[in-house]
Amino acid sequence: MTILVTGATGTVGRHVVAELLAAGENVRATTTRDPAATDCPPRWTSAEPT
Questions:
Q1: How many other CB atoms are there within 10 angstroms of residue 44's CB atom?
Q2: For the whole model, what pTM was predicted?
Q3: Environment class of residue 37 by beta-carbon count within 10 Å: exposed (0-12), middle (13-18) or buried (19+)?
Q4: Is residue 6 a contact partner of residue 47, using CB atoms and an 8 Å limit?
Q5: Number of compact structural domains in the chain
Q6: 24 — phi, psi (to 5°)?
Q7: Do residues 45 and 6 touch, judged by C-beta distance below 8 A?
Q8: Average pLDDT rounded to a whole number, residues 3-20
Q9: pLDDT tens-digit profile of 21-50?
Q10: Domain residues for 34?
Q11: DSSP code per residue over 9-44
Q12: Which residues make beta-bridge pairs with 42?
């Protein structure tokens, strides 16, 4: 199963991503920030607020 985390570079989201990855889950993350500036390793999907 793949888990989608929105706001993955935020205060809470980055901790959620870290815990899911540590548990061996497949994580897909969205963020409006530049994911290259983060230390999170999941696959990223860009999201633009509307």
A1: 19
A2: 0.69
A3: exposed
A4: yes
A5: 1
A6: 85, 15
A7: no
A8: 88
A9: 899 998 888 877 766 666 656 566 655 555
A10: 2-46
A11: TSTTHHHHHHHHHHTT-EEEEEESS-GGGS---SEE
A12: none
